[in-house]
Amino acid sequence: MAKIIYISCYNDSSPFALQGQKAGDDVLFYAKKHNKGGTGMIKIIPNLPLTPDKDRIAIFDMSRNGKLADKWRAQGIPVFGGGSICDDLELDQRYGMRVMETCGIRIPETHWFNSFEDGIKFLSKTDEPWVFKPSGDQMTALTVVPSDPKELTASLGYYKSRWKGKVDFLLQKKVDGVEVSIEGWWNGQDFWYLNSTLEDKRFKEDEYGLGGPNTGCSDSLVFAYKNPNPKLYQLTLAKMVTFLRKVDYPICPIDINTIISDDDHLPYALELTPRLGYSAIFAFAELWGVTFDEFVISLLEGREIDIDRESYAGSLRIAIPPYPNSEDTGAKEALGLPLPGLEGEQDNPHIWMLDVMKEGGKLVCAGDDGIIAELTEKDKTLDGLRKKIYKMAEGLHLPNKMGRTDFLDKRFKFDLQEFKDWGYLK
Question: How much is the pTM?
Fold first, then answer.
């Protein structure tokens, strides 16, 4: 039995805490935002201990708690994830992009602004397409990938009148190509478990530009590389190894989201994610053959385990209203909504419950954001994976359930084929 304490920002890792608890681990869970997800299901603590027991592993599931992670490491606590360097790389995008560029990783043409007026002036002098990304701890939904430069100018004018806090954003030249991430799990000196993810970021099907807001991730396709030195890794993460050793990067994953250009079939790095990546992490867990707690412990002990490198893994987000209009305000109108369709699924290892809690012994919506669950599976083929996931989704009875219906459809197959044709799957 392992002793674990999870330090979460938004309850994202609560399904792993529940999984570990069911496996017999002694699990404590702390959420900085004090969301209700997991209440009555896992042991949630209202306050963090000044110093955990030295035999209790601390798992940080998100950037933003880096100083605490550094402090506990210095006190001899076994810590996974988190660190000041993780906070800097993700929350200060200027720094993260500069690090990648200094390491020799190609990035799109990027301009930084501290004023919306300056951004609007810049756009007035170009007809080229640009992407707006806020720096710092801002909502994913604020990212703007316009189909027309005038649309972006209008968005900046809107933000100018309503923006709260420090203005710090980038305009990045839009690159056409295949968007795919490359992730490696840092063991303190090098990378293990290289894997890639293709995902849909929009809320709904986007074939006609009707995909709705950017939700960060609505579905994910994940596969682990057999090749220990794949092409996308060579062009990106491999170039960061010296830097990561120099800054004493903690034991945890780091991901570079890239777009492989249609023009020269080489990647541009778009952003860094120095932490667990949601919701791809739930799909990747299908390939381990062990619990998340066991996976983390093996990393901390320096043991590489065998994972499934033959299958594709996938995750599909299932939500109820008011999602996706709940990232900032929560889903209070859904708080306490009965979820009887989940009652018989509590031991299903492919259903990762999120905005769910127990009240009076019954499962109900916790009212955090309306994201009820991630559904995951694995299969040797994309068609087989798609059938498994949608069979599960169809059989899950929830009030007004929502999710994309085009996961692993023609767009995924097309992108994956191009990825293969360009020599990235050798």
Answer: 0.96
